[in-house]
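Weekly structure sync, notes
Attendees: PL (lead), two postdocs, one rotation student
Agenda item 3: pending single-chain targets
PL asked that the sequence for the first pending target be pasted directly into the notes so everyone works from the same version. It is reproduced below exactly as submitted, 157 residues in total.
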Amino acid sequence: MSAPATPPANTKRVAFAGASPLNEARSWQIPRQFAGRYVLGWLATDELCRGVCLRGCPTSFHDANGELTEDETMDDHVDYLKQALGRRVARVFRLACVGSRVVYTSRGCSRLSWAIVVSDSKGLNSHERRVPSPEIVDRIKKWLGTEEEPCWFKALD
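Predicted structure, written out during the meeting:
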């Protein structure tokens, strides 16, 4: 019998009471009770959006050579991707959630950003509230080009 695969170094694992090492969960998988709407996902940062675009942009704003069209600057394109990338992730990975939401990025709720959403604590149905499996999250991380684990963010609405 082979040993289980080890998680990435930046993956925090937490064991449930009485759980064996095989039943450990990543920090984002632990059931929580939220006051208000929280979403699980990644911040759609400039760096993340640029990386996705450079590896193979999912938009039609490029010509046959992969260059942005004359009317589009990279900054404008990144701004668009911040909003649209979550919907693309939801479609590619067949997630029932909305895909993108504006979230608070500071504890004082003073900073806002777009997030790529994979689960919504107040989703309209159980499919939107379901947390994806670690395997799906790992595939999304690879597609996004990030090693970061998803986080829970307080949603604006």
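Discussion points:
- Helices lie at 46-56, 74-92, 126-129, 134-144.
- The radius of gyration is 17 Å.
Action: rotation student to compare against the earlier draft before next sync.
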